[in-house]
Amino acid sequence: MTSPTKPQHAAPGAPAPEATQPPRRTARRSRYTRQDWAGAGFVAPFLAVFVFSIVAPLLYALYLSFFQDRLIGGSFFTGLANYTKALADPLLHAGLGRVLLFLAVQVPIMIGIALFAALAIDSGRLRGSGGFRIALFLPYAVPSVVAALMWGYIYGEDFGLVGQVFDLFGATPPALLSGTWMLASIGNIVTWSFMGYNMLILYSALRVIPTELYEAAEIDGAGALRTAWSIKLPALRPALLLTVIFSIIGSFQLFNEPNVLRSLAPTTITTYYTPNMYAYNLAFNGQQYNYSAAVAVIVGLITVLVAYAAQRVSNRAETGRKSK
Amino acid sequence: MNTTRARLQRSTGIAATLALTLGLAACGGGDGDDTPGSADGVTVADIDAVLESDEEVTIEYWTWVPDIQDTVDLFEETYPHITVNVTNAGQSADQYTKLQNAVKAGSGAPDVAQIEYFALPQFALSEAVVPLSEVGLGDLEGEYAASAWDQVSVSGAQYGFPQDTGPMVMFYREDILADLGVEVPETWDDFVEVARAIKADNPDNYITSIDPGDAGGVDSLIWQAGGRPFSVDGTTVGVDFTDEGTQQWTELYDTLVQEELVDVTAGWNDAFWRSFADGKYAMWLTGAWAPGSIRNNIPTSEGLWRAAPMPTYEAGTPMNAENGGSAITVMQQSDKKAAALAFARWMTTSPEAVLSQSQAGLFPATTGIMEDPEFLGTEDPFFGNQKTNEVFVEASQSVSSGWQYLPFQVYANSVFGDTAGQALSNATPLADGLQTWQDEAVSYGAGQGFTMAD
């Protein structure tokens, strides 16, 4: 994936070589018009689904966020009131702070492990690498709700696996579902679930590196570590960026794991533990759909900004490296 | 009609929007496209006629009562032309979220739904359920226990058929108390002493647990202490946790929690049931509906349990409260209201239905059965052949009146863990915790347009 392969054929709609064109201008113009319509026809099905299922709901959420609907008194326009309230809402701040901390700690760990696993499997020094690949990817196939339930049992202090192992050694098990440990416990579940997925993205990026580069490196006398550092890592840059952006979005959307663990720790995991849980509880327990929409819009914008910032930082580093 | 429709369309959009923008899946099934807000002119004659006719009807019924299928089978045997599809759409708040979504969306609600008494005012306020008086069934008062009829009444109208009530009962492990050589506590002072004896015997054990996320459990304990924190008069709502009864409870539970005599931990999960099975907990203070749940979740403890009246604050003065209990309601969205109402009425008034549900572990809300010597004399082998129904009927009769739930109790309960539950978890003064819950409820109520009383 170092550079996209150049298209072998001219893209549809691009001007064909002059020589093959008939000399009459009118004919050419009508041919272009026909081609344009054909293109639109191909795009239309996607566009229709995109507009109806992505754009329209987003606009609708935006529209809703300017209103307020009361149990007594009905619905009325409130302008930006929901936004000013949300921006000053300590519960939303708490949730955002929590997912940012989660993002800063969990994502580097998860991607670090995924990168190590991808390099190890790609190194060719692993016996039965196919088995490793499947085993590491398997947790991704477990639905996140099931994963959270399963880990919830494992974390249990009295009857869980962790508790029983500690009991075996006569030690006091850590309260993995208490305030101090909870975010780490969730991070562990998420890492377990998504490490294999990220590994697979990185691994497939490694597979497309032309073997000539490795041959050249070998001739130049580069060892395995040097090859990994100078060839594999630079080639992985776009794939790494992709996994980072996916993980940023995933962190902001943290919902299933804390929501499932809530039944085990109802006071540690508050209704506003993550911004997504807050929006959910506002809408479905509090029936504050409008305020919830405003919260969702704000969280969405922050996610876009953070993901964009990650991309900018990465691009700047890339251009800086190239100009050296 | 126009506002209804606009509201309906907007709500559908909201659900869709949220589901898409937040990546959440809104749940719901079934069909029915009726606009809410009218009972379709159904009368008692229509309800009787639907049972007589042989026209095939299928109705959807959401409930989480264990073994309810047995009773539904009885109904289908009696009325083979009516098919009832039972769906467990989650317990309590989980189901209300789905039901509320369906109400907002204008479709997807079942014909018949179980709604606990605490949540009924909210569904009544949004006109999501059929009031019995609107279909000529407002005169069933004599059929049900007074406390049950009281709890389905919202501003003078009844919004459901009382299915079961949950007078508070002290369920205890007879073997544990016998091993320790302690008497069954009659007052809360005795209770604290027994709790200390259990703790002294083994510091890992507790007399019982309290769920810091369960507002309903705390509500019942406050009710039992004589507290009346919620008041509703039309759209004027009051929340006040400083009355004498509530203080009586906070003092008692401050002692129990701070001395670590009760285990502050979530209920209704695997660890909770195992704690009873393993003898970590000696008691469960809860509604009389509990036997079914105990039987299903801890079958190994057969014969070890007994039921006793709740401890009292003053010796010899029984004062009780309800915990849970549900109504069977018919949704305004249903397009088979006659059949749905006929089914719901049969479930709660027909002697065979009531008996069947009581055998499944529910404590019925129907008065007829409470005087039935066969019912009272039933010996329950799970409870060492104790005549538990006698205890439950007595518990039901000593329920004190005047308790009210907020018209936004579902929301208030959902933030209990964020506020008062924190005081339980951190063993800080409960009065302060309740104050934060009160502030949250008052601010929500005011924001929703209710007049908040001082």
Sum this structure up briefly.
The complex is a heterodimer of chains A (324) and B (454). With 324 residues, chain A is mainly alpha-helical.
**What order do the strands of the largest sheet of chain A run in, or round the barrel if closed?**
1-2
Shape of chain B: globular
- CATH class placement of the largest domain in chain A: Mainly Alpha
- Overall structural domain count of chain B: 2
Tell me the β content of chain A.
under 5%
Global mean pLDDT of chain B: 89
Rg calculated over all Cα atoms of chain B: 22 Å
Would you tell me the structural class of the helices and strands of chain B? alpha/beta
List keywords for this structure.
heterodimer; A: 324 residues; mainly alpha; MetI-like fold; 2% strand; B: 454 residues; D-Maltodextrin-Binding Protein, domain 2; 2 domains; seven-stranded mixed beta sheet; globular; UgpAE/MalFG_permease (chain A)
Explain what this protein looks like in three dimensions.
- Chain A has 324 residues and is mainly α.
- In chain A, 70% of the residues lie in helices and 2% in strands.
- Chain A folds into 2 domains: 21-64, no CATH class; 82-323, MetI-like fold (Orthogonal Bundle), CATH 1.10.3720.10.
- In chain A, helix 1 crosses helix 12 (289-323).
- The longest helix of chain A is centred in the N-terminal third of the chain and has 40 residues, at 25-64.
- Chain B is an alpha/beta fold and 454 residues long.
- Helices cover 44% and strands 15% of the residues of chain B.
- In chain B, a hairpin with a 2-residue loop joins strand 8 and strand 9 (236-239).
- Chain B is globular and about 65 Å long.
- Chains A and B meet through helix 1, helix 11 and helix 12 of A and helix 1, helix 4, helix 11, helix 18 and helix 19 of B.
